[in-house]
Amino acid sequence: STDGRGGLRVPAAIAPAARGLRNAAMRCLTCCTLQAVAVAILGGIYLNELARFRTNGPGARWVNWIGDFDCGPGVAIERPKTLPELQEAVKRHSSVRAVATGHSFNYLHCPGSPPGAVVDVLGLKSVKIEKHGKDGHKVTAGAGIKMGQLQNEILAKGLTLRVPPGNPAYTLGGCIATGCHNLGQAHAQDLLAMTIVQHNGTVVEIKRGDPDWYAAAVSIGRLGVIASITMEVLPYRSLAWSANQLPQPDTPGIIDKLYEMTKRLTSRETVGNKLVFYLSTKVMMEEHWTPLDRSGKLEESSEPLKPYINPQPFRVGQGPLTKMYAEVRNAVFGVAPLPVLSALQVPAEMAFRGLHTSEALQGFRKALGWQHSPEARGEGTARPTGHQYTWAGFLDEIMNYIMGLRHIEVIFPIASKEHAVKCLDIVFAYKHLAWWRLNVRTMKSEGFYLSSTYAEDESKPVVYARVDFVAPGSLLDAPEGEASLTKALRTGCPGWRKHWGKGLFFSSADEQWGDPKAFLEVANRWDPQGKFVPAANPIWLSR
User: Fold this and answer.
1) Cα separations in angstroms, 11 against 25, 66, 181, 321, 519
2) Cis peptide bond upstream of 165, omega within 30
């Protein structure tokens, strides 16, 4: 029936229900509108903070990308685009540190004498590939190019780095300065030369074989700001990946497995496998990368590969919004009981393991463009597609941002089985810190003075275990976190060391390794006034 005005007449029996439904719809619409407005306001504030950082606006501060390590309000941010601009930036300040993507998890990126300046080298990203020797090739690239883009440029020419980058977002300069590695090989092993801007703005080229080479190859930026790097590159080869689940033995059995893995590292052309532990679900996997033969002839692409463009949409600590979020994040982890957090690790590990290791999901991983995909380490294909920053990479960074994850690496020699067992047992005892998974690799020593796998006699290599994981920063800052772990390592694992770009420096600065005397002799000649000495400089590099 109608109501006499052409509209439908609502029966009296259902009128209250209709009004209730209408009111509920209005409340829902109002609530959704308010939420949208709130999200828009918060998004606008965040983008304003991000723009402040990117444009060196008033109040911009240099922090690592997750916001845990702030250099302070007085530190200037320089962003040169050319070598002359870099020279001028270095000369302008009395205390300088080189920075880029902010993937460090300690204060070594901050200048040692305030106020000082950080020099962001991301604008230095030129690439030149040319012949080297009779049949070889080399690449010379700016220190600010991201490793993913560098690999893409090389792949397009039918070439590759000896081992693919472990993280495509790292920059070449930061990777070399801190001694980064992948699949049992250090990228510094393939260095041919580098140009460095010294304390007075002078540009110096140092080459492999020069007297100061062993100090320059892994220098943590102490000799000056790296402007460009030349590396040997090789004909492309793919790496076929596979994984198998093994019964988890006791710790001595794990060390025996590491000895077995090390036997396969017969040359720089071999790559190392790794053991992956999902500690909360008590699963151990062995991941294998099998190198295929290098191409006999270069298969250059007719066009460049798609570029790797990581816009770095996160930078915490530029204003009240992100500072407040960091405080809330810390408070949540601070009040949550460890048993609850440990229980949450179980589904997290199961999801990560399924996505990462399932052969059935290989196509899904490729479609996702997941940067932690094992296929991304070597493609496993005759024609590479290279690295791209995808929405999966964005989601990965969101998870790091939400949880405030820091990267940790504990390194120790395994020549003595008894000692190695003690070291690994200490790390396992802190499994509440290791989220998602814990990786154990082996790597042979090298002679660079500050290398985390240094050994004086290169003719008698020492084998090291490298144990790495990610941990929420709030848990590391808790009493049972970083300070407790480093104290246990100091007592029970003498000779352990850290990765220069990762964590554990805050509570532990007196563990010495390498040849600091030889390094400091070179550093004091190159930088007599200490312009490049970092904040939180290790005690044993201050003498």
Assistant:
1) 20, 60, 75, 52, 90
2) no
Cα 211–214–219 angle (5° rounding)?
120
How many CB atoms lie under 10 A from the CB of residue 520?
A: 17
Contact 165, 182 (CB under 8 A): yes
3-state secondary structure of 444: strand
The span from the CA of 341 to the CA of 435, in Å, is: 10
Using the structure block, give the residue that is written with the tokens 């590695």: 181
246 C-beta neighbours (distance < 10 Å), count: 13
Dihedrals phi, psi of 338, to nearest 5 degrees: -55, -40
How many residues does the structure list for the chain?
543
User: What are the φ/ψ torsions at residue 407 (nearest 5 degrees)?
Assistant: -95, 135
In whole angstroms, how large is the CA radius of gyration of the chain? Answer: 26
What token pair was written down for 300? 């250059």
- Residues 6+ positions from 24 with CB-CB distance below 8 Å: none
167 within 8 A of 371, measured Cβ to Cβ: yes
| Side chain identity at residue 421, one-letter code | V
The tokens describing 51, both together, are 């723009």
CA distance 345 to 430: 13
Amino acid at 50: L
Pairing between strand 225-235 and 181-182? unpaired
Q: Where does 309-416 have alpha helices with state H?
A: 320-335, 338-357, 362-368, 391-403
Torsional sign, CA 38, 39, 40, 42: positive
Q: Is 266 helix (H, G, I), strand (E, B) or coil?
A: coil
> What is the rounded CA–CA span in Å between residue 444 and residue 15?
80
Question: Mean pLDDT, 10 residues at a time, over the chain (543 residues)?
Answer: 52 67 80 87 87 86 87 94 98 97 93 94 96 93 96 91 90 96 91 98 98 97 98 88 88 95 82 89 88 69 81 79 86 87 88 79 70 58 76 82 92 96 98 93 94 88 95 92 95 95 84 94 97 93 79
What letters, b where the CB count within 10 A reaches 16 and e where it falls short, cover 207-226?
A: eeeeebbbbbbbbbbbbbbb
Q: 């930036």: which residue's tokens?
A: 89
CB 473 within 8 A of CB 404: yes
Residue 49 neighbours by CB under 8 Å, 6+ apart: 315, 318, 319, 321, 322
Rounded CA separation 497/102 (Å): 22
Phi and psi of 233, rounded to 5°? -125, 160
- For the stretch 127-142, what's the b/e string if a residue is b when 16 or more beta carbons lie within 10 angstroms of its beta carbon? bebeeeeeeebbbbbb
Q: Answer yes or no: pTM beyond 0.70.
A: yes
How far, CA to CA in Å, does 107 sit from each of 68, 279, 456, 489?
A: 9, 30, 28, 21
